[in-house]
Write a structure and sequence with these properties.
- By secondary structure, the protein is of the alpha+beta class.
- It has twelve helices and nine strands.
- The strands form two sheets. Strands 1, 2, 3, 4, 5, 6 and 7 form a seven-stranded mixed beta sheet that branches. A two-stranded antiparallel sheet has the order 8-9.
- Helix 9 packs antiparallel against helix 10, helix 10 runs antiparallel to helix 11 and helix 10 packs across helix 12.
- The chain starts with 22 loop residues before the first helix and ends in a 6-residue tail after the last helix.
Length: 401
C-alpha cells in the first residue's frame, strides 16, 4: 500500500478544530507535520518491528522548539494537537516526547530549585540530556500513591553516615514500565521517606552506583519506546538533587493531571491515524469488482470512526479551554481519558477490520496503530480507574478502596 494522501477528500478534523489556533500556531503545526512526514513516517514501522529507538533524530526533534509549548507562549489546544499529530504518525515517538517534556522537563519547571534549573533545564528542553519519570512499581500501578514501596532514607555527615561532607539520601526499591528508562541520563524517582512516610522526589543520575536498568522485552505495543525495570540498591543521592517543594502526592497533582491530558490527546491521534489509513485503504482496495468504500457497511464503519474522532477532539478542545482558564480538574481529565480510551478502542478495531487480513501485519500501518492503542488504554490511569474517578465526582461516593 502506498502511503499517499487524499487531498481531495475532507480532513479527519471534520469540524475544523485546528482553525481555533492562531496563525503562528497553525504554521508551527504545519512545520511539525512536514518533519514527521520526512523524518518519522517512512521509518516508524521498521523501528517498531525491531524495537529500536531512533536516538539520531533527537537533535532534529529538538530543533522544532516544541518542548513544553505553554512555557513558550503557545495555547493548551496547540500543545495537545502537537501530541495528537505526533501520535498520528508514530505513537512511540509521541510517548517519548511527552514522557521527557511533559513529565521530566515540566517537573523541573514546577519543582526544581534555581540550582537544579540552572544545571539541567536548558539541556533537557533541547534534548541534549533525556529524562524519565520513575513512579510505577512492579506491584503498584494505579494504587502507587497509597502502596509505594520504594524508600528514601536521609543520611548526614553529622552522624558519620555521609562521607562527602554533606547531607544525602539513600534510595532502595524498584520501578517498572519506565519509559525512556534504558537510555535516559536522569530518572525522576519518587519514594517514601522512611522517617515520616512523606513523598519525596529525586533527580537521579542514571549512572550512579546501585542503579540497574533492564529493558522490558516482548511487548506488543509501543515497541519503539524503551520501557525499563529499574532496581535501586543503596543509591546515594545528594540533598541538592531532591525536589525540596514536594512532600506529598498532592504536590504533584498538577503535573500528573497535565500528563494525563496529553495521553488523552494521544487517543485523539490514534483515531486520526486509524481513520486516515482505513479510508485510504477503502478507497484504493477493490473487492467484487468495485472499491471497498462503495459498500454500505464500510461507509458506516468509516463514519463511526470519524464521529468518534471528532467527538474526542471536541471534548479535548473543551478541556484545553478549561486549562486556559485554570479550571480543568482531575475528574474532568479522568472523564476525558476514560471516554476517549473507549472511543479509541472502538475506532482502531473498526479500522483493523476494514483492512481484513492486511490489518494484522505491520506492512500496513493499521496493525501497529491497533496494538499501540492498548498501551494508551492502560497508562496514565487505566480506563477503569479514570472511570471511577469521574464516577466519584458525580456521585459523591468512592468505589475505589
Amino acid at each position: 500500500m502506498e502511503d499517499g494522501s487524499l487531498p481531495e477528500l475532507p480532513s479527519a478534523d471534520f469540524f475544523a478544530f485546528e482553525s481555533l489556533l492562531g496563525q503562528k500556531e497553525r504554521d508551527k503545526l504545519a512545520e511539525l507535520r512536514n518533519f514527521l512526514a520526512a523524518e518519522i513516517a517512512p521509518y516508524a514501522g521498521d523501528w517498531w518491528n525491531k524495537a529500536e529507538f531512533p536516538a539520531h533524530i533527537l537533535p532534529k526533534l529538538a530543533a522544532l522548539g516544541l518542548s513544553t509549548p505553554a512555557k513558550r507562549g503557545y495555547s493548551n489546544l496547540f500543545a495537545g494537537l502537537v501530541i495528537a499529530e505526533m501520535t498520528r504518525v508514530d505513537t512511540s515517538i509521541a510517548t517519548f516526547f511527552l514522557v521527557h517534556h511533559d513529565l521530566f522537563v515540566q517537573a523541573l519547571y514546577d519543582f526544581g530549585s534555581e540550582d537544579q534549573k540552572r544545571r539541567l533545564l536548558a539541556d533537557a528542553s533541547n534534548l541534549r540530556i533525556t529524562g524519565a519519570f520513575a513512579l510505577t512499581e512492579p506491584s503498584h500501578g494505579s494504587d502507587v500513591a497509597g502502596g509505594m514501596e520504594t524508600r528514601a532514607r536521609r543520611i548526614s555527615s553529622a552522624t558519620g553516615e555521609a562521607d562527602d561532607g554533606g547531607d544525602a539520601w539513600v534510595l532502595n526499591g524498584a520501578k517498572r514500565w519506565i519509559g525512556n528508562g534504558t537510555f535516559c541520563d536522569y530518572l525522576l524517582v519518587w519514594a517514601l521517606d522512611e522517617a515520616d512516610g512523606s513523598v519525596r522526589g529525586f533527580i537521579v543520575d542514571a549512572t550512579l552506583p546501585g542503579v540497574t536498568r533492564t529493558r522490558i522485552e516482548n511487548k506488543i505495543a509501543l515497541r519503539t519506546v524503551q520501557n525499563a525495570d529499574i532496581l535501586l540498591a543503596d543509591v546515594r543521592v545528594a540533598e541538592a538533587d531532591r525536589f525540596g517543594s514536594v512532600s506529598s502526592f498532592e504536590d504533584t497533582k498538577e503535573l500528573l493531571r497535565g500528563s494525563r491530558i496529553m495521553v488523552a490527546w494521544q487517543a485523539v491521534g490514534q483515531q486520526l491515524a486509524a481513520f486516515d489509513v482505513a479510508r485510504q485503504y477503502a478507497v484504493e482496495r477493490r473487492q467484487f469488482g468495485r472499491p471497498l468504500a462503495q459498500f454500505q457497511l464500510i461507509q458506516q464503519q468509516l463514519v463511526t470512526m470519524l464521529g468518534n474522532a471528532v467527538a474526542s477532539m471536541g471534548m479535548m478542545a473543551g478541556l484545553a479551554r478549561l486549562q486556559d482558564d485554570g479550571a480543568a480538574d482531575m475528574p474532568q481529565v479522568a472523564l476525558a481519558k476514560s471516554y476517549l480510551s473507549s472511543r479509541m478502542r472502538e475506532t482502531v478495531a473498526m479500522g483493523r477490520s476494514i483492512l481484513g487480513g492486511n490489518g494484522i501485519v505491520t506492512d500496513y500501518r493499521m496493525a501497529k496503530i491497533f496494538s499501540d492503542a492498548e498501551a494508551i488504554y492502560t497508562y496514565e490511569g487505566s480506563f477503569e480507574i479514570n472511570t471511577l474517578i469521574a464516577g466519584r465526582a458525580i456521585t459523591g461516593v468512592s468505589a475505589i478502596a
